[in-house]
UniProtKB/TrEMBL annotation:
Protein name: SWIM-type domain-containing protein
A Pfam entry, by short name: SWIM
UniProt GO MF annotations: zinc ion binding
UniProt entry keywords in alphabetical sequence: Metal-binding, Zinc, Zinc-finger
SWIM-type domain residues: 53-86
């Protein structure tokens, strides 16, 4: 391919991505006015005279070209050289150019992409790609729009990885370009391999100078992030997260990228920005950066460092009981279906999933896959989610994910029968709260799971009601001690069967059985979302079972449930400790939003009142941290972050169940 043909990949948009539209217009005018000409060749390198300057350019394109002018970056002379050489040989794009470019990207060795980006940036690229995007072609280039970053990356014909162009800043460029490659490969059915992830074993060392730099950046984020969120600060945090020194600290680097994303939301006035959550994330990262240098226990240190991806090892034997299955869709567009299984002997939940990444296999239907896609000796997730079975050995991750690609075959005993004697089963809600705190709260060195299934055995159930404000259907359940709580189901367009099936049971008096719920933490309360029911008919997943009452529209549900709103149960008031901690967190957010300057007299009075109340109700650690903040004589950011982390840890310990008064 000639140099002119190679440079044809640089259309106006690609050149504008390298420079800007104004420079492209000026360069085009120079060419039109005859101010550019080819003065000679040195092998494959063209020498172009452009408005008195000399440009040397080869097949690597304008980014690697040289110019005698002093302008930084891509100057108009280099752009003019491209436009001039494009006129030398007009070459029509090859037929099916998009297919050839996609084939070129899918043929790239994964290790070559990792070397291009660096390990830390490769991890960032996978996070960015998880948000999804779109791939289109211009005939000479693939245009990849990254949804989570609002960035456009171009892969140009004949220029390879190094020739990709975008408007990304130097700090983000390699991560975004690698994310674009991942998206194209996923759309073609090529996923990130497990072997490359497993090769990224995080070393045990941590650069203390790097951690000091991280803490300085986090203190700056505390002072300026919530109020101004300058682009320079966002870039600084992202640069730290993908630097070579962050390769050995995957957990911290992921947290830094999350904070950078929040600052971008603040800077762009995104409605999703939550200042309280942002300050909490900054405080958690600061606590991690403080803990890493002083952690001497190998197990604790490994937890603080984190892992790139959980590897699958052989586990077993397992005696599993199917408990539910449900479909899901990630924010970035990935979708799938997951089945849940419980092993009473080791008190542990396991999952198996069938899923497709964003842009991959557009005909994949999670509901159809649940009932028809075979795995483990021809079994389906639908059948296993209702069955009792055993594995002698199977590949599984530390988080309990079972490999769907393994050749293991289950020995099926019959239908799944859930027992009230299991450790995950409860007919007393006070014991349920203890279980969820132990499984979902976690610590700095041992982050907890985001979701924990539990089996509830209510003595009786109440009439459900719909909350217009939260758009949730609440179903009261009573334990054997007479205490009531609510399991709640949101209006999810992706799960239309949930409302129908739950209503068909909830409106029939005399339900006798168990409710399998997915427990998680939302704010300062546990959220209990029903996934399946168990009764004389066995396990019935809400996502897949047909309702026993005529199907009704969502407006019908609103009319039915709204009639009972006045007599709806009343939630218990929040404990005094939770309300006080929320008040303290709000005070710290206000200090951060004003730049962590000296605390005003009224602010000092409010902190003193909070400290006094905290002492009275037994929150001495919180009172001590806030007292130190109020007495601080120098910069406040560090003490604000310490205080906020202590408050968040205490709030997690006080997380409550959604109890009701009937």
């Amino acid at each position: 391919m000639t140099l002119a043909a190679t440079l044809m990949a640089f259309d106006e948009a690609a050149l504008a991505a390298l420079a800007n539209k104004g420079i492209v217009r000026r360069a085009a005018r120079d060419v039109e006015e005859g101010k550019a000409s080819v003065s000679g060749w040195e092998g494959e390198t063209a020498i172009v005279s452009a408005d008195g300057e000399t440009v040397r350019i080869d097949a690597r394109g304008p980014a690697k070209a040289s110019c005698t002018c002093p302008a930084p970056g891509i100057c108009r002379h280099r752009v003019a050289a491209v436009l001039l050489l494009q006129q030398q040989e007009e070459e029509a794009p090859a037929e099916n150019a998009a297919a050839s470019l996609i084939a070129e990207i899918t043929a790239l060795p994964e290790e070559a992409m990792i070397r291009f980006a660096g390990r830390a940036a490769w991890r960032a690229a996978q996070e960015i790609a998880a948000h999804g995007g779109e791939v289109s072609d211009t005939g000479t280039a693939l245009v990849i729009t990254l949804r989570g970053d609002d960035s456009e990356v171009r892969y140009l014909r004949g220029l390879g990885i190094e020739g990709m162009v975008s408007k990304a800043s130097p700090a983000r460029r390699k991560a975004l370009h690698a994310a674009a490659l991942i998206l194209v490969r996923q759309a073609a059915g090529v996923m990130v391999s497990e072997s490359s992830a497993e090769a990224e074993k995080a070393p045990a060392g941590a650069d203390e100078a790097f951690l000091t730099e991280v803490r300085d950046a986090l203190a700056d984020a505390c002072r300026n992030g919530l109020a101004l969120a300058p682009l320079m600060l966002e870039e600084r945090l992202f640069t730290l997260s993908v630097s070579s020194r962050a390769e050995s600290l995957p957990r911290l680097s992921a947290m830094l990228r999350g904070i950078a994303r929040m600052l971008r939301e603040r800077r762009t006035r995104d409605f999703r920005f939550d200042p309280d959550a942002c300050l909490g994330a900054i405080a958690a990262a600061d606590a991690l950066a403080r803990a890493l240098p002083v952690a001497s226990d190998p197990g604790r240190r490994a937890g603080l460092i984190g892992s790139v991806r959980q590897a699958y090892d052989e586990i077993g034997p397992l005696h599993l009981y199917g408990a539910s299955g449900e479909t899901w869709r990630a924010e970035g567009g990935a979708r799938g279906v997951t089945a849940y299984f419980y092993d009473p002997a080791c008190d542990r939940w396991f999952t198996a999933s069938l899923a497709r990444g964003v842009g991959q296999d557009p005909f994949f239907d999670p509901r159809h896959a649940f009932t028809s896609e075979a795995l483990w000796g021809g079994q389906t997730l639908a059948g296993l989610s209702r069955a009792e079975f055993r594995f002698d050995s199977i590949a599984g991750s530390p988080a309990g994910r079972l490999s769907a690609s393994t050749a293991s075959r289950p020995d099926i005993s019959g239908a799944s029968t859930l027992s009230p004697d299991w450790a995950c089963a409860f007919d007393r809600w006070d014991l349920l709260a203890e279980r969820l705190r132990s499984r979902l709260v976690g610590s700095l060195a041992a982050p907890a799971a985001a979701l924990e299934p539990v089996v509830l055995w209510p003595r009786r159930t109440g009439r459900p009601w719909f909350d217009d404000l939260t758009q949730q259907l609440h179903w009261p359940l009573e334990d054997r001690g007479g205490q009531w709580l609510a399991v709640s189901l949101g209006n999810d367009p992706d799960r239309p069967a949930h409302f129908d099936h739950l209503a068909s049971v909830a409106f029939r008096p005399g339900f006798s059985g168990a409710v399998i719920v997915a427990a998680s933490i939302t704010g300062t309360a546990f959220e209990l979302r029903p996934m399946a029911l168990f009764d004389e008919n066995g396990v019935r997943s809400l996502d897949f079972e047909e309702a026993r009452t005529p199907k009704r529209s969502f407006s019908d549900f609103l009319q039915t449930y709204s009639r009972h709103t006045r007599s709806a149960p009343v939630p218990y008031a929040k404990p005094a400790g939770i309300s006080l901690l929320a008040k303290a967190a709000t005070e710290l957010t206000g200090i951060s939003e004003t730049g962590c300057r000296a605390i005003s007299r009224s602010g000092s009075q409010r902190l003193a009142e909070i400290c006094a109340q905290a002492e009275r109700i037994g929150l001495g650690t919180v009172a001590g941290a806030l007292a130190q903040l109020a007495a601080a004589d120098g910069p406040l950011a560090s003490q604000v972050l310490i205080s906020r982390y202590i408050i968040d840890q205490m709030r997690a310990q006080l997380t409550t169940l959604p109890m009701l008064r009937l």
